[in-house]
Amino acid sequence: LHLVYPTLAILSLAFATVLLLLDLWTLLTWTYRQRHCEVLEITPGADDAGVGGVGVGGAGLNYRHPLVGLPSRATFVWFLGVLRLGWQRPLEFTDFGKLPKEEESRFQYERFFRQYLETQACCSKSYQVGWEVRSPSLWKVFAKTYWRQMAAGGVLKLLGDAVNVVGPLAIALIVSYVSEVQDGSLKQQGVIVRQLYYVGWREAVKNGWVVAVVALVAALAQSTLSQASTHLVAMEGIHVKAALQAMVYRKALRLACSAPIDPPEELQDKATPQAAKSATQGALPNSARGAVQNGVRGAVPGSARGAVDTGAVINLSSEDADNVMTFFMHCHYTWAIPLKVGVIMVLLWVQLGLAAVAAAVVGILLLTPLQFILCKKIAAVNK
């Protein structure tokens, strides 16, 4: 054991840690599928021939991301069949096949609504013990429903940003290696030994070829991790949009279809109040005439109290749901960008000194307001 170089022990420990993390990820994924196996059976039809059915052996199922292994998920190899078909001819809607039941709107709605009911029950218990009455918080429902995939996306985002720093550092080491080779100073530093010698990290980092391979692997890893993180958060954003739209649709079906109507302006200008009253009652529905007869403007029976404007319902199901989906897709940038800027500042200070850090800070202070103004203009144009 005393002949084993410490670097090999560190590499073995790192490799074993990676294998342990993969095993834990596989176990958690299998446990999650077993817990939600009952909710998957939501499509009508016993032969799985309906929309969203997987069929025997996954026939007609092209979106296989939830069903494939980790290497295929990381590299998106499962999508090569669709890409090959698109290269041969233009794709049609039927070429995309069916969706897994986990990706159906009804499954996402039931998944979200279950957590909503649990949060609502907690609020009811708080009211029973004498606490302040509170409505269920959607943020808590979001956190309970989507925290697993969002946390996995955040970890992948962190790893991708960390690996992204390897490229600039590797370029500096490669340039230093090429300069030493051209100057001939690298040969003068060589030492001849007559026993077995294990190469350590310091010697490996000084070799330009090793650093070039490390830079290539880091670039591939950064692309893989970044795409995996983007895919996870994008899919969760689509899931929450589908769930919110289904919730709004469910609520809209439970609202009243009628509301009190104010009398027209031409009727308000009548000479006699009695004529205006009779004309107003003729314009109102039968369920709301009693409220006007009692002289209470705006007081309507229970069937009309919950009426909501159609435009508000449309905004909730389209614009607001899109905004929540966009937030899910970009929420990790709120902590990733400041962290990345801080790491870059530290590297600038180590490599170039305080002058480079001061110049970078001035550039950020000048470009941030300009970026904010441009974003406001783009948002105004999109509206």
Automatic annotation (TrEMBL):
Top-level division of the source organism's lineage: Eukaryota
Region entry Disordered, spans: 265-288
Residue ranges of every copy of the ABC transmembrane type-1 domain listed in the record: 151-383
One MF annotation (Gene Ontology) recorded for this entry: ABC-type transporter activity
Keywords: ATP-binding, Membrane, Nucleotide-binding, Transmembrane, Transmembrane helix, Transport
Compositionally biased spans, kind Polar residues: 275-284
Residues annotated as transmembrane: 6-28, 333-350, 356-375
GO (cellular component) term, any one: membrane
PANTHER family linked to this entry: ATP-BINDING CASSETTE SUB-FAMILY C, ATP-BINDING CASSETTE SUB-FAMILY C MEMBER SUR
Name assigned to this protein: ABC transmembrane type-1 domain-containing protein
Source organism (scientific name): Cherax quadricarinatus (Australian red claw crayfish)
Source species taxonomy: Eukaryota, Metazoa, Ecdysozoa, Arthropoda, Crustacea
